[in-house]
TrEMBL record:
Regions of compositional bias (Acidic residues) in chain numbering: 653-662, 854-864
Identification of the protein by name: LRRCT domain-containing protein
Sorted UniProt keywords: Coiled coil, Leucine-rich repeat, Membrane, Repeat, Signal, Transmembrane, Transmembrane helix
The keyword Transmembrane is annotated on this UniProt entry: yes
Coiled coil, from the record: 570-598
Amino acid sequence: MEARSITVGVFLLVLALLVRHSRSEEFCPNGCHCHYDHDSGDFYVDCSGLGLSELPHFPDTNVQILDLSENMFTFIPPEVAQFSNLRYLDMSSNLISSLPPFSLEGLHSLKQLNLSKNNISNWANLYPNELLQKTPFLEELSLADNQFTSFSSNDIALVLVSASVRYLDLSNCKITKVSGKEVIQGLISLETLKLNGNPLHGISDIKSDTLKTLDLSNCRISTLQSTALSGLSSLAYVNFARNYKLSLSTHGNVTSTSLRRVNLSYCNLDSIELGGFPNLKTAILRGNMIRQLMGNSFVANPLLENIDLSSNSINFVHSDAFWQLSNLKTLDLSFNAIPRIDGRTFKENEMLTQINLSRNYIARLQRIVASSLAHLNMSWCEILSVDADALGAMPSLIDLDLSHNLLYDDPWNIASETLQTLDLSMCRITAIRNTTFSRLPALMRINLSGNRFTTPFRVDFFDSNTYLSEIWLGDNPWRCDCRDSGFLDFFLFLTEPPRRVNDHKQLRCTSPEDFYGATWEAACRSVWYPQDIMGTTERIWTYFMLAILAFFGFFCLYSSIKRFVDSRRKLAAERERQENVEEMREVARENQLRLRQEAQLNAPDARESRPPCYEDAILLPKFDAASFASLDELLLRGKRKKKRRHRQSTGDEGTDGDDETDRVELRQSSRSRSENVLSVRAVVYQEPTDALPAQNSPIYQRPTSNRVVTANVHASPTESRGSRAQPSNDAELHYHSTDILRMDRPATSSPTSSRSVTVSVHQPGPSTSTNQIQDFNSRSYENSPYAKRKVKPLQHINPNGSIEEITDFEGYESSPYAKRRLQHLASFKGDRDRERPPLPARPPPSQGQQLLQDSDDDDDDGDDGGAISIRVVDDYFKPEQSKPDLDDYAVVTEDDVRRNLLEREKQQQSSVATNAGSSGSSSIEIIPARNERQQ
């Protein structure tokens, strides 16, 4: 039941702590740190160092400790009044320059107020009469490190009034004087006043019945009136330390009957000036320039209990210096220059228990009479010897410190029935005898480290020290003779339970050289513990087994490391492979993106991806003669050169005729090539039939093609008459085909441009020209890239199937071939009205050409000099059909052309009769051949 109740209590306590912690975090303002003290139950809020100028929002007003230091407040925020339970308020290190009377209003529970390190420059800005009236429980007020310069009661309105303040800190200000007896009389409960760190040169007679502690240290006080402390009836402690020019007896001894403790350290006093303090119990005179202690030094202070005269220049101590101090308990004379102490100096001090004579120049320890002395410190005194009865008159001595002296021989004559601790460390002792510690029966602790012992002691030297429990023997040059039985006995005496040695790790050998630096146990193990030493066979077998175990251990370690390295390498390779794959993918994506961008930039015009329609084809500029006839021109040029050389050699004068002949031949060749190019663009496709046998060899025939191209061209009457003497190959359209570009002019405007063209497009089969044109108009050609420019000119096609005029060419500039056409059209426009030279005579036409020419002669009466009839068998503009490739057609011979023309002439007699203006016509048929694979 008890265990269960304890468990429940612990659980409830932990739960309460967690709840309080969560509560402290829940009600903590932003940026502040909160802590709940479980012992006192205080809620601590730290908002320091946040640069605040306004009080943050507090969800909970139950705050006991509030820290607002190191901020930017210029006044105490009035919102602090909401904390009715506030006990500690820290407003230090702010920018407060004044404190109005209402600054602490509402803080009824406030006990501690810290206003240090602010900018209060005038004591009047504190409103001292009214400031502390609102805080009835305020006990501590700190105004340290401010800038006000006076603290006086000359004006009654400047007296600080508080019935509860017990601690007032005015340290490190710039107060130069404290004047007026009533300066602290308004603080009726004041107990501690701190004025240290101010540039005070003196203080006036101040009065207070409650003041107990006055701190005037580190000021500039040189002299004091004898009555400066007389008005402080309860004063117990005054601190005059570090007033370097202080004198308490210039105007008579400063008196205080209530003073119990005074600190006059580091005041450069050359004599003891304590005559005005009859009830003084503690005098701290450290760090002065006192040289002698005479018999009357402490006559006026019979109640002294503690005297600190360390760090002075005392070189003489009178034997009667302390005889009247019957209550003296502690005396510190360290760090002086005392050469000798008389044995009767402390005879009358029956309550003296502690003397510190260290750091003096006492060469010999003589007999000292001190019946109650328990602790004697004479270290660092350069003592060379100790008298036999040096400790005989100190029956209560417990602790003796003789360390760091020049003792070279054992103090064999030391005798004390009560000595328990003896410190002989860091001396020069080389050996001890059997009687060295025999007269110290109560010895419990002895320190012999740092001496010059080389051989161990005999165990029987310590037979009389039955209470010996701690020995320090380190830092000695021990010689380890492991074969010596006494060495082992002394080691066992130190180490066996109860262990006596406290620094056995410091027991190290310096000789022999093999054992230098080794501990006693490590150096002599093989001698002291032979049973633990293995034989040769056992040692070999042990080494062998250890070697096998080490090999297997090394093999396992190597295998694990190798496996680990291989796994890391594989992981690294896999990671690198994945990185390379990702990099290659990224490069491929970048290349694809770059290719797409370049393809979009370099993509050809969509209108140029398909071959032009017939209307755009006839609008294309004619090719340069030089590009077509460059080879013939070069050949003719060579012939001309040969003829010119021949004429020059023979002296023939027919140069003009020959040059004219060459020019005619060149024009004929260029004209033939141009007509061939244009005739290919205007080809008519026709299905091959058995009625057209290939009698002659074709001009060009592809071996894998089953399509036949039949092209019949009728020249105009003027051309046919002028070119009867030319070969049949020259009867092709070239020069006058460009007249179509200017169809808006009448056909009879120029004798040389009297030719008109009629284009008839119809499906295969016998039908009239009107039906052909209607079928052509009813077709869907919107899918053509040239549809927008094609619609308007096609509206001028006559119902009879001929194109009389094409007058609207305003949009031809937007054609994809416009840039290439502008230069040629400009030259054509400039030359269209000029009379063209007559064509040279051609050789007699063949039979097929004669028929074509006769047909043209019969129709010579019409307006059109010649008509070209085009019959399109396939619908070229359908998007689902592919364009016929010129390489997939074969060119038939002239006999097939003539036969086809004769048949077509018979079928078109009816259309010729209705269209009187177009009596002569040329017919071109394009009949695509069916591909065997499509069948």
